[in-house]
UniProtKB/TrEMBL annotation:
Coiled coil: none annotated. Residues 20-124 form the PTS EIIA type-1 domain. It holds the Pfam family PTS_EIIA_1. PROSITE patterns: PTS_EIIA_TYPE_1 (PS51093). This is PTS glucose transporter subunit IIA. Keywords: Kinase, Phosphotransferase system, Sugar transport, Transferase, Transport. Its main location: cytoplasm. It is found in: Cytoplasm. It comes from Streptomyces sulfonofaciens.
Length: 149
């Protein structure tokens, strides 16, 4: 089983609290979401693996079992065209759980009129294969968000 850990410090809020129907309806996949602390921070890899996809506002890490985990930094942040985000790794790079992937500032994103809530999604999965999904409470980067069987 793969443990997926939080890429950020903040509060677990669950996908249903994400202000985007694609995420809140779990159309991308099941998982949870983090309402991040409002200070500059680094989003870290939620699993050991390889960076399959990398954008200023989102990244996917695929673990050794082939599980892809999407971390999306805020909602509609693609519209910021990378402003306020700094990539710290490259696509195709191997990363360790907890390794910094993107530096960003959730407060600045919010000031630009975007939600800083961050979905953390199990790609190509169903809710039945996830266990122990955290949907509330304070989390630190590295705390377990859910298990993936």
């Amino acid at each position: 089983m793969t443990s997926v850990t939080s890429p950020l410090a903040g509060r677990a809020v669950g996908l249903s609290a994400v202000p985007d129907p694609v995420f809140s309806g779990a159309m991308v996949g099941p998982g949870t979401a983090i309402d991040p602390v409002r200070e500059p921070c680094e989003a870290v890899a939620p699993v050991d693996g390889v960076v399959l996809s990398l954008h200023p506002h989102a990244f996917v890490v695929v673990d050794a079992e082939g599980h892809g985990v999407l971390t999306h930094l805020g909602i509609d942040t693609v519209q910021l065209n990378g402003k306020g985000f700094e990539l710290l790794v490259e696509r195709g790079e191997a990363v360790a759980r907890g390794q910094a992937v993107i530096k960003w500032d959730p407060a600045a994103v919010e000031a630009l009129g975007k939600s800083p809530v961050c979905p953390v999604v199990a790609l190509e999965a169903t809710a039945e294969v996830l266990t122990g999904v955290r949907e509330d409470g304070a989390v630190k980067a590295g705390d377990v968000l859910f298990g993936w069987e």
